[in-house]
Design goal:
single chain, 338 residues, alpha/beta, Rossmann fold, Peptidase_S9_cat, hydrolase, serine-type peptidase activity
Length: 338
């Protein structure tokens, strides 16, 4: 009973933090949108191609493009310029009126929802309703190269998805890559409507990285943010103090009560798959030992140890691989189609 209460309090504290950062609360509303012809990439050198279809498991449906239904929407999630959430949905055209499982797929830093189209197509071909959004300050919401970690949009997205007549509200999964994997992790912590979770190269130990001087990989991926903080603090170089102050500023609790040793176990007993590279400098494997042990203990106590899995692919750094894509797809098939 005590452990259940602790998880409830953790979830409540996280939700309270999210609500405290809202500009204003507004009713959720839906607006039709048009496809984006020239999606914005914020990389200094934008990707030359989308996610390779070769790395995405497929059901090999012929003429798949002719069988797909595409929806482009805006959801209003709060007041302010970032309160307009762009949504892209792909699904198979079907005349039958039955509810299907859904998978929310989240992009990595400096990408956008259109970058995920091959994955959306793959999941749609397997019978899912596949959903992608532009994260804050990305894609259609970009006003600068600043990244922002906030899962409020995913709570409001769940509000919308559970109202749709074509989605089985008890079978909604969530996954993401890097920044998206982090969002999937935290969204599933705070919102239990996400029934199955897969995080790709997104889960790490933030406190462990600071204490063990292994923060450089993550910090360098969004370095301008930390350089600005360094200047404000009057320091000659980014150090542990700068890193901790930035995390506390943009994501309070990220390196303390909301870090992975506490929040990963709180997802139990829902199915959770963590896919990382064994040599990933942004998500050091050593920093996941305690979160993994705590998670296994939580899943074992809930008699659901088969619903937790961590795969660290040997020789892989901060990148996704065909093996990861295959593992993710099979995880959703196992737990959303059962």
């Amino acid at each position: 009973m005590g452990e259940a209460s602790d998880v409830h309090n953790l979830r409540s504290d996280f939700l309270q933090l999210l609500r405290s950062r809202r500009v204003s609360h507004v009713p959720l509303c839906v607006e039709l949108a048009k496809p984006v012809k020239n999606p914005l990439f914020q990389d200094s050198s934008p990707p030359s191609a989308e996610i390779s279809s070769e790395s995405c498991p497929n059901t090999n449906i012929s003429n798949i493009d002719h069988l797909l239904k595409e929806e482009n929407l805006y959801l209003t999630t709060e007041g302010g310029e970032q309160g307009r959430l762009p949504v892209l949905i792909l699904s198979l055209k079907e005349n039958k009126h039955h509810r299907r499982p859904a998978v929310v797929i989240l992009h990595s830093t400096n990408k956008n929802k259109e970058y995920l189209r091959p994955l959306l197509k793959t999941y749609a071909s397997r019978g899912y309703i596949a959903i992608a959004i532009d994260s804050r300050y990305h894609g259609e919401r970009a006003t600068s190269t600043t990244t922002y970690r906030d899962v409020w949009d995913l709570i409001k997205l769940a509000d919308y998805l559970t109202q749709r007549e074509d989605i089985d509200s008890s079978r909604i999964g969530i996954t993401g890559i890097s920044l998206g994997g982090m969002h999937a992790w935290f969204a599933s912590l705070v919102d239990t409507r996400y029934a199955v979770v897969v995080s790709l190269i997104g889960v790490q130990g933030f406190r462990w990285a600071i204490d063990n001087d292994k923060w450089q990989g993550r910090v360098n991926s969004i370095k301008p943010l930390f350089e600005a903080a360094r200047e404000d603090l009057g320091k000659a170089a980014i150090d542990k103090e700068v890193v901790e102050k930035v995390w506390n500023r943009i994501a309070p609790g990220l390196a303390s009560q909301f870090d992975s040793p506490y929040t990963v176990p709180a997802i139990a007993p829902r199915p959770l798959l963590i896919l990382n590279g064994a040599e990933d400098p942004r998500c050091p494997l050593e920093g996941l030992k305690i979160p993994e042990a705590n998670a296994r203990q939580a899943y074992e106590k809930s008699h659901s140890l088969d619903k937790f899995k961590l795969v660290a692919e040997p020789g892989i750094q901060h990148e996704t691989t065909p093996l990861m894509m295959k593992e993710a797809c099979e995880w959703f098939d196992r737990f959303l189609k059962a």
